[in-house]
Specification:
Strand order of the largest sheet: 1-7-8-5-6
CATH class of the largest domain: Alpha Beta
CATH architecture of the largest domain: Alpha-Beta Barrel
Number of domains: 2
Helix content: 10-25%
Distance between the termini: 27 Å
Low-confidence stretches: none
Length: 261
Amino acid sequence: MPELPEVESYRALAERALRRPIVQVDAPDAWFLKDGLDAPTVEAALTGRYFVAARRTGKLLLLHTAGGGPVLGLRFGMTGRLVVDGRAGVDRLLYSSDRDVAAWDRFAVSFADGGRLLVRDPRRLGGVLLDPDQSGLGPDALTVTPAGLRSALAGSTAPLKARLMDQSRLAGVGNLLADETLWRAGLDPRRPAGSLSPAELRRLHRHLRATVTQLVARGGSHTGDLRPARTAGGACPKDGAPLTRGTVGGRTTWWCPTHQR
């Protein structure tokens, strides 16, 4: 958390920050500035400019400045929230606090009209970048084509869930989204990623796109149909079978041994 659905909500919220002159940049946490970036550099790069576009690739939010100026990249880690003019991009993050604590404000941009865009991150696992390198990211999970998904999985002996969460292969899928998608698609998360048949690949692609779209509309990756059952004694919402809990790709994973094959 946040995963693609949350960051897509942040992107939509960030459109409220477009075409508003930037008069101040606050970067009080040097740890939060990545790839050698420092506070004076990011302040000089953004002050006096304005954002013209809000874009997202996977879990990375990109704010473009006018005239081909620098691109502000925002990562949110596990607990980061975007807030614009006092409004948060999502109501809740499953593994974070919803409290508004000023000490958790890691980066902020103030506008000439008095409004602000800020990143609030209790655990400091996110980060701020300028002109971030995106070459290491795979296709976005919301827009990936069937051919792109097939390419991301082809020939891999890694567990299917691990491959889906590999950001260099497919950008945006996190733990909750992976479990929800595979549960809906009826696919065992432990299967070798390259073992899917053409029909299974088509089914996975269909459910991936539909799941992301639905969870964006619902308000986050924690709103999936499987999530309430991801607990000791939980039963599959589809067929009532006891769910299995294990570790796949280093992450806690829940699946139905009856219909996920």
